[in-house]
Known about the structure:
The protein is of the alpha/beta class. The longest helix is centred in the first third of the chain and has 97 residues, at 166-262.
Amino acid sequence: MNKVIRKIKETFLYGGLEKEQYKAISADINESNRKSIITLSIVAALIFGMRLLLKYSEVPYTNKVVFIIAIVIFAFMAVINKLVKTNTYVIHCSAYMFIAVYLLTGILSSIGEGSIQERTTLYLAFVMSAPMLFALNAVELTSVVGSAEILYLYLIGKFQAEYPVYATNKGNSIILSITGIGLGIYMANRKFSGIYNAYMNSRLQEIKELNNELAENRKELQAALVSAEHANRAKTVFLNNMSHDIRTPMNAIIGFTSLAATHIDNKEQVKDYLGKIMTSSQHLLSLINDVLDMSRIESGKVKIEEKAMHLPEVIHDIRTIIQAGISAKQLDFFIDIEDVDNEDIIGDSLRLNQILLNILGNAIKFTPTGGIVSLRVIETHTAPKGYADYEFRVKDNGIGMSEEFQKHIFEAFTREKTATVSGIQGTGLGMAITKNIVDMMNGTIEVNSEEGKGTEFIVSLRFKLSGEVVRYEKIPELQGIRALVADDDTNACRSVSKMLREIGLRPEWTISGKEAVIRAEDAMEIGDEFGVYIIDWLMPDMNGIETVRRIRRVVGNNKPIIILTAYDWADIEQEAREAGVTAFCSKPLFMSELRDILSQPFRVKEDLEKEKTSKKTGFKCKHILLAEDNELNAEIANEILGEKGFIVDTVGDGADAVAIMENGNKEGYDLILMDIQMPVMDGYEAAKRIRALKDTQAANIPIIAMTANAFEEDKKMALSVGMNGYILKPIDVDGLVEMMTNI
Length: 743
């Protein structure tokens, strides 16, 4: 019984739905009602308007007034419901008002007119159809329509009882009213059911989307969890590696220091120990720098500078830096360029150096003694106007990498664990740093490697050009002259030959020293001699010096012969000169360098060591004020500078340095070495105060920052407060002398 009552209640009160379902879609029901009211109000206004116009002459005056009032009310309800969209009270009142006005208009217009049947039929048709269009529940329909029906029948019976049709209409009216109410209830239930189904479908769609979103979030969280776990494992491994890698050089430093103290009287042994201590110290410093670099990159403090740079200088500097490592492991090193037309570009030379040195350092580290390492620079000519694209390819025939490790090579703290690699020191940060810098420079880096066969890294970068594209004119004096290039690297031969051809020479090339000699003899015999010889220093069948010596026997001493090498030629320069070498040129050979060496008289390079010595001599007895709060650092600096002939006075704080300068620099200091981090007044503040002194001589004294702060922003800060230079601890005296020369 309770179930039946509940079902009847739901049918009459909630359109066949449960109470909670009805509440859930109440907003949609109100919106449906609002639209129905607007539509029906417009239709009703049009109906009564048409009745008014079509039967105007037959309609009594009172009915005209009733119709006009009804039209105004219907129009008002349509406008109000169009404007008011969310007010439930207005919508319900409008629904009741619509039915009441329509019924009342029908009743009033029927009283006193001749055809009750016509008007009753029209009225009853509305009673049947109106509930179908409204989403009112059964109680509302019954109360409003039922009351209006009773009133209608009463008035008709009272005023028009004399018409015989009344009895028929009364019965029809009752039947049709009941039918209309029942139909209205049915349609309302159907409408509510449709609205609820639409609501549930939308909710199901929302739930589906939420489930999809949750699934995606779950995947992301799982990936993040895996990444976090991997990072934690990697950091644990990193800390273990760092503990081992830092302790290794530290143990060496401590151990060899102890041995040096024990064998203090054995000068050669102590010198050997000190050399090993220096090597271990440099390695320890490189480990710390890697960690600091990674920290700065992750914190977003690393910025890419946009400065003019000369590509040949950058590449030659890199060659110079790695030369010691190449020589120590007795590796064959090949370096060449291809299609490099733009040598002057805009970019960050420091970061480019860091990228290439990290990769080359790994190539040297993981290539066994006697292996091969190569660097190739290619301009790809794919960039838009005003830019240049370059590929930097570093290749070795070292131990290579597994496919699995290649997937993680650019992740921080990652090192491959194999028997071959485990004995090689490193932090596992170098390639992560490299990848981050390449990304910041909007470039790409890829790696191809195979275990036991070697590795190749390809770095692609785009740079702005520094100005107009340089177009090299042909050198008139060299037009048509034959040139011979001898190099066991085919790429180098082709690159140099192409540049010679652009200058106007007729180049030929060979990969054999012996063949170069044979060609020189043949050229002499046919009377078409080579005017220029460019010979590689190291070739497998015959080295460059012996090749030059034999060519000189054939051609005499009047033809220029240039030795081309990727190595330091200082040790063989005298022997090479005696063999007949005219000049030396570093690999890779750029167009600007080739033109310079061919178009100008060949000249012997100045002895750099003599130049450095003369500079050092020029700075003897220079008086230096050292501001350093750490006694040990001050003692080290005093000893190093004193041995080089400098007179050093030390103060423990920047405030003391300022005080001395405020007194007019009576001690006659030529330079201030200023530590940055000091307790009372730091170096930046001290430099600013000295630069603000009224005494111009004291205010303009050269100040060089001497600090362990190795970051670029620290250097910029030092220069911004008026310092003249920036040198890192421990002091590199040669670098200091060079800096003082440029001040």
